[in-house]
Amino acid sequence: MEFEVLEFKKEAQQSLDEVRYALSEGWVSERLESSSQYAYLNLTTREGQEYCVRLSGRGFQVVGRSHDEVSGEEGGTWETVYSLLNCISPSYSSSFSARLADRLNRLQPSAERPEQND
């Protein structure tokens, strides 16, 4: 059972690591108890909105509007952290697009990059 709890916490942490660029803050809650069926994440969007999110086998669910607060399920369930952020953070889409463009530019061979005049 301890292994299953750690696996949910690990998955929650990996999800946060993947979208850290689009958040002001994010961490796996240590105050709210995780189980073999769920873990809690605390998020602060770039807009300054705080959320407590439960990650379970069903997906990601907003359960509170403050860190470490479980006040009930709000809205739907999202399969990925990306779809959750797309719904709760208006700036997520532009952050994602900018990050993708940056990564694609790094993949382009330097000979093909347009000249930059400073």
TrEMBL record:
One Pfam family in the UniProt entry: GSKIP_dom
Record Gene3D superfamilies: Hypothetical protein (hspc210)
GO BP annotation list: regulation of canonical Wnt signaling pathway
Occurrences of domain GSKIP (ranges): 8-107
Cellular component aspect of the GO annotation: cytoplasm
GO molecular function (one): kinase regulator activity
Domain of life where this protein originates: Eukaryota
Family named by the database record: Belongs to the GSKIP family.
PANTHER family: GSK3B-INTERACTING PROTEIN
Protein known as: GSK3-beta interaction protein
Originating organism: Geodia barretti (Barrett's horny sponge)
